Amino acid sequence: MYLIGIDVGGMSIKGGAVALNGEIIFKTSIPTAEKYTADYSISEDIKKVIDLVIEGAKISLCDVKGIGIGQPGSIDSKKGIIRYSNNIALEKVPVVDELKKYFDIPIYINNDANCAALGELVFGAGKGYNDIVFVTLGTGVGTGFIIDGKLFEGRECAGAEGGHMVINTSQDAPMCNCGQRGCWETYASATALMRQTKEAMEKYPDSIMHKLAQEEGKVSGKTAFGAAKLGDKAGQEVVNNYMSYITCGLVNLVNVFCPEAILIGGGISNEKEYLTVPISKAVNEGRFGAKFNPTIEVKTASLKNDAGILGAAALAL
Amino acid sequence: MYLIGIDVGGMSIKGGAVALNGEIIFKTSIPTAEKYTADYSISEDIKKVIDLVIEGAKISLCDVKGIGIGQPGSIDSKKGIIRYSNNIALEKVPVVDELKKYFDIPIYINNDANCAALGELVFGAGKGYNDIVFVTLGTGVGTGFIIDGKLFEGRECAGAEGGHMVINTSQDAPMCNCGQRGCWETYASATALMRQTKEAMEKYPDSIMHKLAQEEGKVSGKTAFGAAKLGDKAGQEVVNNYMSYITCGLVNLVNVFCPEAILIGGGISNEKEYLTVPISKAVNEGRFGAKFNPTIEVKTASLKNDAGILGAAALAL
To answer: Any idea what DSSP says for residue B175?
Structure first.
C-alpha cells in the first residue's frame, strides 16, 4: 500500500507516492495557477497531480491507502475545507468533497505546518516522541503541536497558530500580515532575520555581512550567520538577538505544552547545531520552573525538501 | 455521596464538603503554618482539615467519593506530588501518598489555577463548554486549559503556565518572579495594575485616582477602574492599557487553543462587563483569521470565593 501526499504551495503543487515506511517512490509537480475561481477550483489541479502521481508511480488507486493534502492557510480539516488562504487567494473551498467525486478513498487536508509536524512525528526527527512543538522558520513562522501522539489543532481546527503570538506589545513593534503588531513571526521568521540583517548592515558599514551579501547577490537568511561564524561582531549581534527572539516564542510554547522535543524546520534550520545548541540551553534555562520541571530536547527537523509531501502523506496514515 | 475540596493558600488551608451538584454543605479552615519541614509535612495540616470537614459536615469517609486538593505551584498531578511551591516553601512533597495512609479513598492534587478552571467547567460559568481558556488575574496570572472537556496540563503536568508567556521581549520589560522579563503576569496581574496605577498617579497629580486611593486607604486594583468610570482621563488611560495587556495574552492563547470561551477569574473579574465587553471585542478582532475563524465568548468566572474549594472538589469527580 502507498500514501499520496500533495504539497500545495504558492509556486507549485507537488505530489508524491509514499511507501508506508516513508520512502517516496515517485514525485512530480505542476505550477500553481495564478488565479482559481468558482469555475476553476484548485481541486482540479490537485486532481491532475494525483493522476500524474498514480501514473508515474505505476500504481493503481486500489494500492493507495489514502490521500493527504498540505495547504497553507486556515483549514477546517474535519470538514475538508480551505477556510481561507492568503498567498494563493482561496476562500471556502470544499477540497475534500470536490476530490471525492474522482477518488473513492480517504482524503485529508490540513494546514502545511500541521502536516510538517505530523510528518516529522511519523517519518522524521519526531519519531519516538509523543509531545512535540514543531516550528518552521521561513517566510513566516508556522507551528504544529503534537500532544499524546496526536495533532492538536484547537477547536474547529482554528488554533495552533503560534507564529501569531505577540512577543512585543509595544506600539512600535513590527506590523504583521495578520493585522497585529509584534507577532513572533515578525521577529523569528527568515524574513525577519533578513530585515534585522539589513538594519545591522546600515548601522555597521564595516561588517563582513556586506561582503557576504555581495558574494551571494543578496541579503539572505545566511548572511548574518555566515558573518557570525567568521567572528564578525555585528553578525554575532544579529544572530544572538535573532536566537533570543526564537527562544522567547519557544519558551512561551514550552510553558504551555511542556513538550518532550522542539523540532525546528524551515530554511533557517540549516544552521543546525549552531542554532539548536544555544537555543536548547536558553529554552531550558528560561522556561518556567527550570529547576524542577522536565527538560526539553531541541533538534532540527529532518525531512527537509520532501517535508511537504511526506507531511501530507502522514495525514492519510 | 460528597466530595471534599481542599484549597491550600499562603494564609490558610480551607476545606469543604461538596455535594455532587456543587453545593457546599460545610466548610472550615486552619491557618497555614509558617514553615513545613521533613518532620512536619503540609499533609498533616491537610489531614487536619479533612478530619474537621468530615466531622463538621456530619458525614463519614464512606460518604466521600474522593478528595481533591488545589495547591499553588508546580504539581505533578499524576504522581500526586508537589514539585515546588514558591509562596509556601515546599519541594518534592508526596502529598497524595502521605494522605493515603489516613484515607483509603481516591485523592487528587493539582495546581490551583487548573482546579479553578475545572471548577468552572463542572460547577460554574464553564458549564456546557468543552474548550475553555481560564485565566485568573490576581497576585499573579494563572491559567487553566480545558480541551475536549478535559484539563490539559502539558507533558508531565508541567505546562499550562500561560501567565509566563513573554509579551514584551524588551530588555526594559518588568522583571517577573520566574526569572524572565516581560511575562504576561507582569502586565496583566492585579499587582501589575496597581504598579501601572501608581505610575499614572505620579504622572497625573490631578487625577481623581489620588482621591479614590485616599478614601480606600491604598492603591488597589479598583483605583483606576473607579476613576475611569467617573470619566477620569488618566484612569481611563490606565484601564485601557491594562485591558490591552490582558487582551494581548488572551489573543496569544486563542491563537493556540481557539477555545469556545474565555473565563476570567480573580479579583479583577469583579469589574464584570466593564472588563469583558471591550476585551471580548478586542480578542475577537485581534485573533488570527478573525474574519473566517469561529468567535470566542468572554465571560467572568462565577465561583468567586468558593472557587478554591469547588475547583479542588471537581478533581475528585
So the answer is: B
